[in-house]
Write a structure and sequence with these properties.
By secondary structure, the chain is an alpha/beta fold. 47% of the residues lie in helices and 13% in strands. The chain has 5 domains: 198 residues, Rossmann fold (3-Layer(aba) Sandwich), CATH 3.40.50.300; 86 residues, no CATH class; 167 residues, Rossmann fold, CATH 3.40.50.300; 149 residues, no CATH class; 206 residues, Lambda Exonuclease, Chain A, CATH 3.90.320. The relative contact order is 0.09.
Amino acid sequence: MVADSKIHPLILKNFNLNDEQKEAISITEGPLLIIAGPGSGKTFVLVLRTLNILLKEIAKPEEIVLCTFTEKSAFELRDRLSTFAEQIGYSGNLSDLKVGTIHGISNDFILRNRHFTELGNNYEVLDDLTQLLFIFDNFKEIVGEEKKEDEKYFDKWKSKWGTIEGLTKYFNKISEELIDLELLLKSKDKFVKELGQAYINYRKCLLESNKIDFSLIQKYFFDLLNKTEAGNKIIKVVKYVLVDEYQDTNFVQEQLLFKLSSVNSNICVVGDEDQSLYRFRGATVRNILEFSNHFKECASVKMTINYRSHKQIIEKYNKFMKSWDWNSDNPKIKYRYDKDIKHDPDGTFPDYPAVFSIWGKNEEDEGSRFADFVQFLKDNNIIEDYNQIALLLHSVRLDNSLKYTSVLEKKGIPFFCPRQRGFFETEEIGYMVGCFAVILGYYGDNRGDVKGPALKQLIEYLDFNISELGKKFSPPQELSNELQNAVKEIEELNSGKTLDKRLADFFYQLLSVEPFVTFVQNENRSRNLAIFSQLLNVFQNYYHYTVITSKNIKFMRLHFFNSFLRLLFDGGINEYEDPNMPFPKGYVQVMTIHQSKGLEFPVVVVGSLDKNLSSPKEADKVLGSYYQRPQFEPPEKTTGFDRMRLHYVAFSRPEKILVLTTSEKPKEYFNTIWQGLDQWPHVQKELFKSLSFKLKNRFVPKRSFSFTSDLSVYENCPRQYKFFNEYEFTPSRSAEMFFGSLVHQTIEEIHRYVMVGKLDEINEAKIKGFFEFNFKHLLNSGMRQLGQKQKDLAFKQVINYFNQNKEEMKTIIETEVDVSVEKDKYILNGKIDLLSSSGDKVNILDFKSMKRPKEDKELIEAFKKQLSLYGHIIEKKHNKVPDKLIIYWTGEEKKEDAMMVFKYDSSMVASAVKEFDKIVAKILNKDFNIVKIPEKKYCRECDLRRYCIKDGILKGVQDGQN
């Protein structure tokens, strides 16, 4: 066949491919649209298409960008590429491939070319929560003065928080649609005009704070590609762009992907318009439906054979999708590709009811029937593990999921539903929040002006937990004493006094007494407490509360409860879910339909059939006329389209059994799939008893480990590693020092300027500009300010380094180099401060902003080990043996004292790699036992010291002593 001749023989030899898959893999030139139905092997094809390009040597790994929608999908692409490459004997360096989400890849390019943007070093990317907090923190600058009670913001929103939540949706739309701000400012619509000005104010505040939000990452990258010399270089290097889940892209993503592939139009997009779910995040299905229209010629392949599901399931959801009117009044516009999903022609499909319903008399009865069905499958060994069953709902918040999970709990059937937003319902968080209400005196008049149902509900929650603490931990319980001491410390703050503590310091004190000592022994409870520590850190950073003072305690109390916790409590927070074990064994999986996208389970139960589901339209309605292209789907049809696509995703997840469940009459649009179904428990159960659904090994991505953030931390203290790396507790105070960061970042600025050919333009004034720029942004990040003497010393170190190494800078290859190498069970990565050429070899430099230690051989050996590992990665990645490993101590006056040079030693590398493997094995096996007590200097400033003292690990290190 023609397709076979265009596919490398090693792929044809090692993998079974159908004709559709072969065609998709074989087309390597020009634009290609792949419509991939559910279960058709799109990830499989995307990986093999990439390998075909590499095997045929059409492109090198560094010339390929491979992006997808979620980090999990990106990890899966990366690991399957590695597995398949090893299987067929491809020996190229796959770590040079740019694999990730569109946001992640955009951010990587921005980081490497940041000096072409307005951003400072270590800029912060706001997530959904911190974006809301940022607008709150800068409300006056963005919106203006707070309104009186009877006035509305923008003549639209009654409350401050309502305004903030509303603005984020509009701000994100403005960024994603690349709207011309001048058009907004010139609008005759008062709301639009004010919105445009607020967005400009918002961008100004972000820039001054060295922050960007999630949507702006893509806009910055788009501007980088279009407006800079760096953009031209990036575009020339990239020969192939491959995009998964293209139906979930938005306008700015479409534009930057087109720009990235503009040299030769080698762009391949894969997706399924029937599975487009993310309109509420700005995605538009038109990107995949109109993809071919952007090119004179565009190849197209439909992959329609489903290898996942029983043929009865496929027949049902095909009929479901065809029952809807997808036609347009304009024959040139289509809202769906015409396709018919087929079952595996070589598959065997036993005769049993693969699709049936549960129709309860009421919610309690529905939940009971669902639980009986789950128990039946397990008792009859039809399933091997509860995690082979997934319950899919439009929302899993307690008011939607409790009718199912409460019955499972009564029957002793474990379930996993971290996104119930039940974080505040857990005992450990209830007690912790109650403790903080006691410590900060949040009662009576101290609660300020209690307005709104959300704050009143929070106060009811707090009062309940305070009451529980009083009942269970009254004197002489240790927790009671701890709280009394904390309250006394704050009450004794006289005017002008400062308590050298942050809220997080109280948190770690509480962890050292019951019940929290017991809570942290349980991994799930410990991880929830870790989330609380992260939230405390967010609060401290965004409200700029470094320590507690007599002046700020009142404002801190009100900000923490009336604003911060009120927002979190009202919106709800998910409990912890392990990205490395997303489907824990032994638990029925309860998740949203959106969560289930891209997944498959032997048994899927779909609820929410009676719910009214709507689509977000407000922002499109207000801003649509300012978009760079007219709106696509008619507003009156979008809700119907979105409902069909959402449930199509749900109905196409199961392999063996699909169950539809409700206690109310389903919506009419389910008639084609619902009517005529047998009902549980009246189906032919005997037909099920011959079935046995084998447990599959689900994909678990390889974890990444580095020397500085993993090996050295674990070596110092396995318990510190367990809490701060494994469970992700956030320390009370950042260990990063202002001085070192300032020196390091300014030297990096010099290197980046050199790399773009501007060494001759660098002088003391230019360096001073770099220095002050970084100083400002480090200060904004919340670090404690340097004294003038320390600041002058930092600048002196930078100037001294530049003056003594100006000639050597001509040999710079790259700065701040992210490097990684894949091992059997993990990925070893790191960041090299500087790579320079040494003939046909390379030198590796690491900067230390301190004087050269005189006698600390252990520290020097640790640094040598780190550089040896970096050398190992460079050798594996670039096939170049490093020449010299250099530690540069910027605190030394003379260059000969500053440079500590080692020859690259293969025996040192072998020893370092062996030791790293050994420690990673311990981490993966969760071996966090303290065999050797850490040095006192590590314990002295550690947040866990009181916990360890109570535990008996530390006897010579008292709280606050050495």
